[in-house]
Design goal:
- By secondary structure, the protein is an alpha+beta fold.
- It is 22% helix and 34% strand.
- It is built from 7 helices and 24 strands.
- A hairpin with a 3-residue loop joins strand 3 and strand 4.
- The radius of gyration is 29 Å and the shape is elongated.
- The N and C termini lie far apart (79 Å).
Amino acid sequence: MNYKSLLAFANAIVLSLTATYGQITETPKVEEQSAEYVKIKRVELTDQYTIVYMQFVEKQSSALKEMQPFLRRMPDQQFQMPSTSTISLDPETRLYKPGEVNVKFKLIKAKDIPTEMRKKVNPGEVVDFVAYFERLTPGIEIFDFYEGRATKGQQTWNFYGIHIKNPLKKTGKTTAKVVPKVEKPVQPLVEEKKEEEIEAKPTVPEEELVMIKGTVYDSKTKNPVPAQISYLEKGDSLQYKSSSGNYRIGINPKEKYDFKVFAKGYYGSNFSLNAADSAAKGSFVKDFYLIPLTVGETISLPNIYFETSKYTLLTESYAELNRLADMMRENPKIKIRVEGHTDNVGDFDKNLELSTNRALSVKTYLINKGIDEQRIEAKGFGATKPLAKNGSENEKRKNRRVEFVITQI
């Protein structure tokens, strides 16, 4: 047998063994992830496991970096590098087939990272660890890694859209054609049955999840923008950061959620979701279009409510007003003019007075939230700036509104 024939023969054997025992994907493509300091280095599929090789890099402050040369010259007993973080892998971590939350694969074990306690990590330290999951069903070549819900301020490591090599199994006939002269044992039928059982297992979940996903856009350009989405779950404040504007969050279908969307340089948005009250099953799609903060921009405050014919704010207005206060705290140089408007029903002068007092009520609320009164102007326009013709009740409702205009950045 010459050299070329021998090489071809060896390659055929390697290919046949790879098809039998699994696939390896180095540095797989990941569409989205919740934490930039954790990455997936490799995914290996064996007959028994989906093995995910990961790496955690503890961030080091710039002050500590500058001190490093000095600290190296000090005796160990005089200074000890502080531990700024602890890490662990939630034992409830799962792999999911995107869009099919009932198809999930359990965490079996982890290596070099604890699951029942937390491990201290020093600034700048690198931790390589491995997670073993149930074997992904052949044919699933994109999956999500969902660690779960953060508690007590801890951040979860979630990865969405992980691309790997996991083709459907080839039949024995196909293998025989590739390597006709190599005698390779055929997988016993009992093994195939185990594969089927693993595939069926996730369809009966211990706890169902509902996925909410979408994109955060610039309302003017319609381009995606980096954003942060925060929400509460069982008293814990959770955050999801997206550098691309795309997001995907797993939630409990039995709970109600209030989401806050924030992007630097934009006026944020709020969104409430009660999955149990919706006809949609499995997943929700919700896109956000945020208004850029520019001088002269008029932004509506749609959820501001007053007592009828009065300027007393109702409690239902507080969430919207808190969002405005948060924006002004995040942008301390911004100044605004709060504008009140009414429909054309009733006395002109009284409407003008009412709209002015309502604008002043909003200003007072913001001041009580710690915003400098010098940054807020309040003005009423009565019925002089209608959005609609005031012909129908719906048109009148549109004209009864509160807005703010950005006057300085």
